[in-house]
Specification:
Protein name: Dihydroxyacetone kinase subunit L
CATH architecture: Alpha Horseshoe
Distance between the termini: 36 Å
Bound molecules: magnesium ion
InterPro entries: DhaK_L_YcgS (IPR012737), DhaL_dom (IPR004007), DhaL_dom_sf (IPR036117), Dihydroxyacetone_Kinase (IPR050861)
Number of strands: 2
Organism: Alteraurantiacibacter aestuarii
Oligomer: single chain
CATH class: Mainly Alpha
Number of helices: 9
Pfam families: Dak2
GO cellular component, one term: cytosol
Shape: globular
């Protein structure tokens, strides 16, 4: 069975940092359509520090590394995103405590645990037009295919799930987060959190040479 080691998880996180930093302005512009326009800057401020600190942080186990990243998120990612992303990394870290490599079923458990933590922390559910509309079906897909898929197959599948979530939620009115405060104005705009997750996954496909053709306009800029 395939497994990912600490260095591979670290590389994926470093790549995600690059994605967030590169898209700082774009993610904030998307958030400005229905929210307060801070999403890109909030995320990039924290991920710039994570990228800088990544070479130095505790690598004794995957869990220890993720818990440290969780702390950096909580401390440096601004706005409502800090506790959300911090909780996600914390739960994934707790689920991989002491492990120096994780199998795909274990990775699916880590993501499932992160998603449950984010739901509990933010009080959002499926259909509220938050990043959970990408994360919940992604976690289910991972759980369903973890026993038989290769890492590349799993990455392609979850990227498609997140890509689809952009268009499936575009017409919804946001019920949680800042975008909910503008009500109807949030309809016909993509959720920046969903676009952020899908962009990270699409960039991972490119980075790892996984063939995937994105559908949503936000991934085809
Ligand atoms: Mg915002």
């Amino acid at each position: 069975m395939s497994a990912l080691d600490q260095a591979q998880i670290e590389e994926a996180i470093d790549t995600a940092c690059d994605t967030v930093i590169r898209n700082e302005q774009y993610f904030s512009d998307l958030d400005g359509l229905a929210g307060d326009g801070d999403f890109g800057t909030s995320l990039a401020t924290g991920f710039r520090i994570i990228k800088k600190d990544l070479p130095e942080i505790d690598k004794s186990a995957i869990g220890a590394m993720l818990l440290k990243i969780s702390m950096l998120c909580s401390k440096h990612v601004g706005g409502s995103s800090g506790p959300i992303w911090g909780t996600g990394f914390m739960k994934a870290g707790m689920a991989s405590k002491g492990k120096t490599e994780v199998t795909l079923p274990e990775l699916a458990e880590m993501i499932g645990s992160a998603v449950e933590g984010i739901m509990a922390r933010g009080g959002a559910k499926l259909g509220d037009k938050t990043l959970l509309d990408a994360l919940i079906p992604m976690a289910e897909t991972m759980k369903a295919m973890a026993d038989s898929a290769t890492p590349a197959e799993m990455l392609r599948a979850v990227t498609e799930v997140a890509d689809n979530a952009i268009d499936e939620t575009r017409k919804l009115v946001a019920h949680r987060g800042r975008a909910s405060q503008v009500g109807e104005r949030s309809a016909n705009t993509p959720d920046p959190g969903i676009v952020g997750v899908a962009t990270i996954l699409n960039d991972w496909c490119k980075h790892y040479g996984v063939d995937y053709t994105p559908k949503a306009a936000e991934l085809n800029r």
